[in-house]
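anyone seen this seq b4? input:
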Amino acid sequence: MHPAGSEPSDETAGRIIAACGIAACRIDFLASGVQSLVWVVETREQRYALRIASPASPEPPSYESEFGIRQCLADLGGRVSRPVRTNRDVESEFPFDWSLDEFVDGSPDPAGQLTAAACRDLGRTLALLHRLPVEGYGPLENRRDRIVGQSMSFRDGIRSRLERPWPFSGESLDFHPIASVAPDLLGKIRPLEPEMLALEGRPSRMSVIHSDLHAGQLAPSNGRLAALLDFGDALIGPPAWDIGSFAYFHGWEMSGQPSWRRMPGLNDVKKHGMRRGCLRHYSRPSSLCARSPATNRGVCAERCDIYGRICSPPIAQTTRIVG
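predicted toks r here
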């Protein structure tokens, strides 16, 4: 039993489930995170996951924007937990925001080991995520009807998500923390500045991205990806961020390619990529920009190259530049 008090309790969870009109056989406290406390709700037909906002969280949860994203992905066949309701869908008032989702039979692997099939499932889900229509930049407004960034410019958006993101922070690379942590990398990083700054003038190349693809966000089950979890850090930015994020946490071999520099497009990634490649089943539709599909694949690979080279293994062992 979760202890009652100022935080949501088992009683709180029971009242929420009753307000949803669900006849629960049992409700068990599962876990506590930075933003939410989680209960498992069992009925005779199925199980649900109930998240209730923690009063101790430094930021309010983004249950509405998560609801909208995951509902779209679930309808398209993406590997996510389908949302059911939030506190905005019931007339009863509660002192805490909450979100009810279908329960996913899968759990993150502490060792971060993913099968080839799980990587392919993730690649397909990311492709669906990146094609959803978006507006604005940066962290999302907490709404489910549209995917809207809180910022009006790419620079403001990335600065609202990251701390001192070079080259968008306005400071010289010589004064960035990487200069003292890994000065030997400055010569490799500095030439990337024009490519990265060029992203500001390419609004059509922005997508909603997950941005934090560590092992705890991936729930495998029986060798497949049961669900991509936790869209609380989703934002509007370059899709290459997600590819770089996956490679940062899991290695470039798992992402599906040995060297972006030798690959002009995703067709080559699929042809030459490593067996487990997440990117082997990643694709972008022609809505990416007004170009042919073949060019779009090349553009996507170019963007992945930019972020991937920033998050190369030497940097991953020291500190992040962007991310």
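DSSP finds twelve helices and eleven strands in the chain. Residues 293-310 form the longest helix (18 residues). kinda curious what u guys think
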